[in-house]
Amino acid sequence: MLRVILVLFEGFSGLYINWRKSHLYPITQVHNMEALNVVLGGEIGALPTSYLGMPLGAKSQSLWSEFKANTKIKVRNGEKTEFWKDVWHEAGRLEVLYPDIYSLVSHQQKTIVDHLTPQGWNFIFRKQLNDWEIQRVADFFNTIGQFNGLEGGQDILWWKGNRKGSFKVGCAYNWLNHTNQL
Question: Which range of residues forms the domain containing residue 84?
């Protein structure tokens, strides 16, 4: 079935898959890898390896962490960005910065647009706030009060390795070489 899907992809896209140069790389444990290889062809590879000069496998997990650390979400309409979990605020991930407030709110999975009303930020707390929690909540509201508001368009992932925020392989390669030389 997978081979049929890939052949259909070839037909619709006009791209050609060179099955003799293709490699299968099992991630974790893959049962019947040899049978899958008979269907798809190519070779069975092993991780770690490299593709276009970029490492894949054991070290790529740290590369992904580095990449994620150098991205943020540029909020436009706020429909896809989770308020607490995603890095959209310049201060950082709010779940990490304010774990005490995070534990107090009822709707932890909501997006930015769910919490932002024309009157301002709207949160429902699980309980009445104690005296000692009020200053921390005020600090939290001061932090998120710096947000400029929603714009038109979809939320986008902004990569800090390029002035325009778009991911380019060449820029990533230069960025990785620079970080590896440090």
Answer: 79-144
Q: Is the peptide bond before 48 cis (omega within 30 degrees of 0)?
A: yes
Which one-letter amino acid corresponds to residue 93?
R
Total Cβ atoms within 10 A of residue 144? 19
Give the pair of three-digit tokens for residue 51: 């593709």
Query: Three-state DSSP class for 122?
Result: coil
pLDDT at 101: 95
Q: How many domains does the chain have?
A: 3
Strand partners, 89: 92
What does the chain come to in residues? 182
How high is the mean pLDDT in each 10-residue block of the chain (182 residues)? 78 82 79 82 80 67 69 89 91 93 93 91 94 94 88 85 78 69 53
58 domain residue, yes or no = no
Strands, E assignment, 81-144: 116-117, 120-121
Residues 104 and 130 grouped into a single domain:
yes
Q: Taking Cα atoms as reference points, which of 110, 76, 118 lies closest to residue 94?
A: 110
Q: What six digits make up the tokens of 159? A: 């990569």
Q: Cis bond leading into 55, ω under 30°?
A: no
Measure the CA–CA gap between 72 and 10, rounded to whole angstroms. 34
